[in-house]
Specification:
heterodimer; A: mainly alpha; ABC transporter involved in vitamin B12 uptake, BtuC; about 0% strand; B: mainly alpha; two-stranded antiparallel sheet; 2 strands; transmembrane (chain B); transmembrane helix (chain B); transmembrane transporter activity (chain B)
Chain lengths: ~325, ~375
């Protein structure tokens, strides 16, 4: 295998596995920056995956190759609606954020499989016919050396995710909305005193996490699993949550951590084809990302600081 | 602290609302909710075998819920119960199969202790990492769930001797010397897999209650959970207590897994995801609201729902997943108990208003009578 071929294989599979994590971890960042802990990302991804597959199976003939992209929109909408459950529970009904998130995670696979059984009469769907597959980025793929590695036969959703990450960084740190969102997550009382609507900002934080989490789930379903069953989303949401914490609640950091997780997940899959990794038992590659997470967490980010009012309900004085 | 003291009425309202949500969903998708719930009840209590099934289901849920509660009392959110249970399950089954000739009175206690110890170690690690380095136990336990899942499957597929395996994906059944099933109990429940485990679980409720409420250790764990700084000031080693609490929590989960292995399934087989008893145990603890009798009640309720749910597709066509939706809804209402308290307050206010109006009417009547009498 030539160096370029190896790099191409590793980079493209890393991007495929990173894309859903980038979307979802940035979603989590928005929610937690507004002060709502979101352990329900896993469930939101599950609903996004469900919606995109149902959409894809239903409309593949109508929209052709455009279908997976519209499937992302379907996932986003259903993710948004589902995240409202979390927003209502935590912001309006003052529920404990972790309990509410756990409810989301318990509810999503049950509801998804229930609906699949109602619609298709069995516990998992047929494979979708229009998936993301691999695409070339126009113009950039003509660059020598870098072009073939990064931009030829690559994952289009991953590049969208990277654009979203940069955009989200700009929104959170450079716009008025971002400043307000952060202030509500740090000190809701002060923000309220200055006339900000704490509840509305927190709702928007959670709803953005619903949209991005739904997109994340839709990417998994339409580029990795290619159908929907109870096993489509098993743990990606939790890994995304870890990426968010690694990224220190910063979209670019979350993106970096997601790429790291994507790399280690993809090594477990393509490692057998790579010289040097061939002889490593697959179990080590399988558990590597999780062990590394713990090691990095312990030695480098021991005292990560969450937004100050993260997980704290704000009860407005009457 | 995640587990909050609910009063009984909040739990009752939550269950009621959860069942109503289930009924609405059945109605919306064209099923008959009444026949759905009748199917549920009759398949949970229809025969002695069904009741045995409910008891089998309850056993690990009680133990994982106890584990969750202990960790939560110390201020930990132990989301790693699944992995800790898996550690106990794999370890105990492997051990039991490796010594098929050991007499039962040595094998059973040592296997139970081994499984519990493995769970305790799996719980101790995240506890220590948080106490020592401040690493979030939520992240560490989530990561450990994956590590233990992959390790467990790998031990089964690559490490265990061929002679103790049925196939690449399943071990042989453990021998009589390690089985927790009792002949009279199996006969009584028409061949269900209920075992001594249910008695162990019931005893553990009392033991954990005693340790948490009546011993210094329990007091220290509670103190650290309520206010680590104050506990430290009073001379409690917050770090040590936190680690011990997580070890107890993991140990209880490990015991749950051991009983699944030696009492329920009698073997170990490749797992596609972390065992659900961890997450279900969390739900039981949340509904039980930190009360030990509450845990027993909640475990019984969820087990009835789960076992009853298995019979729903056959007789009423409702997919099994409905009961998981109901369980999630119940926990939603437990979490959002502010809503229930608000409703209760409304009802009370309405009662009071009605009462004062009544009283006002009465007194008005009396007054008018008196006025008439006075004329």
């Amino acid at each position: 295998m030539s160096l370029v071929a190896i790099l191409t294989l590793v980079v493209s599979s890393t991007l495929v596995y990173s894309a859903p994590l980038i979307f979802t971890s940035i979603g989590g960042t928005f929610s937690e920056r507004s002060g709502v802990v979101n352990v329900g990302l896993e469930g939101i991804m599950g609903m996004g995956a469900f919606a995109s597959v149902v959409f894809n199976l239903t409309f593949a003939n109508t929209f052709g190759t455009l279908t997976p992209w519209l499937g992302l929109v379907a996932g986003a909408i259903v993710g948004l609606v589902f995240s409202l459950l979390h927003a209502v529970a935590t912001v309006t009904l003052r529920a404990d954020h972790i309990i509410s998130g756990t409810v989301i995670n318990l509810m999503a696979p049950a509801l998804g499989v229930f609906l699949i059984k109602v619609i298709y009469g069995k516990g998992q769907t047929e494979p979708i016919s229009q998936d993301f597959g691999y695409a070339n980025v126009p113009v950039l793929d003509k660059i020598p050396f870098i072009g073939p590695i990064f931009f030829e036969k690559t994952s289009a959703p991953a590049w969208l995710a990277i654009i979203v990450a940069v955009l989200s960084w700009y929104i959170i740190f450079k716009t008025k909305f971002g400043l307000r969102l952060r202030s509500v997550g740090e000190n809701p009382q002060a923000a309220d005193t200055l006339g900000l609507n704490v509840a509305r900002l927190r709702y928007s934080g959670v709803m953005i996490s619903g949209v991005l989490g739904g997109v994340g789930g839709a990417v998994v379903a339409q580029s990795i699993s290619l159908n929907y069953s109870v096993g489509t989303i098993v743990g990606q949401g939790f890994v995304a949550m870890a990426a968010m914490i690694f990224g220190r609640w910063n979209p670019l950091g979350a993106m970096g951590a997601s790429l790291f997780f994507g790399l280690s997940q993809s090594l477990a899959v393509v490692g057998a084809q790579l010289p040097g990794l061939k002889n490593v038992p697959s179990i080590w590659l399988q558990i590597a990302p999780y062990v590394l997470t713990i090691v990095v967490l312990v030695f480098f980010f021991g005292k990560t600081r969450a937004p100050k009012a993260d997980g704290v309900n704000y009860i407005k004085a009457a | 602290m995640v587990v909050q003291k609910n009063n009984f009425s909040v739990a009752l309202f939550s269950v009621l609302f959860g069942l109503i949500v289930g009924a609405i969903i059945m109605l919306v998708f064209g099923y008959n909710p009444i026949s759905g719930y009748i199917a549920l009840i009759s398949s949970a209590f229809g025969s002695m075998q069904d009741i045995g099934g409910v008891l089998t289901q309850m056993t690990p849920l009680i133990l994982t819920a106890l584990g969750f509660t202990v960790a939560s009392t110390a201020g930990f959110f132990n989301i790693g119960l699944s992995g800790q249970a898996l550690a106990g399950w794999v370890g105990a089954v492997w051990y039991a199969l490796s010594f098929p000739d050991m007499p039962a009175f040595v094998m059973i206690p040592s296997a139970l202790i081994l499984g519990t110890a493995l769970g305790a170690v799996a719980g101790l690690i995240p506890g220590w990492l948080r106490a020592q380095f401040g690493a979030s136990e939520v992240i560490v336990t989530i990561m450990m769930n994956y590590i233990l899942l992959f390790l467990g499957n790998n031990i089964l597929q690559n490490t265990m001797a061929k002679s103790i395996k049925e196939s690449a994906e399943t071990t042989k059944q453990v021998g009589h010397n390690a089985s927790l099933q009792l002949k009279w109990l199996t006969d009584l429940t028409q061949g269900s897999s209920v075992s001594t485990g249910i008695f162990i679980a019931l005893i553990m409720i009392v033991v954990v209650w005693f340790v948490m409420k009546k011993t210094t250790l329990g007091f220290e764990i509670t103190a650290v959970g309520l206010n680590p700084d104050a506990a430290k000031y009073a001379g409690v080693s917050a770090k040590r207590t936190a680690v011990v609490a997580m070890a107890i929590s993991g140990g209880l989960a490990g015991l749950a897994g051991t009983i699944e292995g030696l009492g329920n399934y009698l073997n170990f087989f490749t797992q596609n995801s972390s065992p659900s008893i961890g997450f279900d145990g969390m739900a039981v603890a949340l509904l039980g609201g930190g009360s030990y009798l509450g845990i027993l009640g909640a475990a019984a309720l969820f087990s009835v729902l789960k076992i009853g749910g298995l019979g729903m597709p056959m007789s009423s066509g409702v997919p099994f997943e409905l009961v998981d939706i109901v369980i999630a809804s119940i926990i939603f209402f437990v979490g959002a108990n502010y809503l229930i308290r608000l409703i209760q307050k409304r009802i009370k206010a309405m009662d009071e208003k009605a009462a004062t109006q009544d009283a006002a009417k009465k007194s008005a009547k009396v007054a008018s009578k008196q006025a008439k009498g006075g004329e």
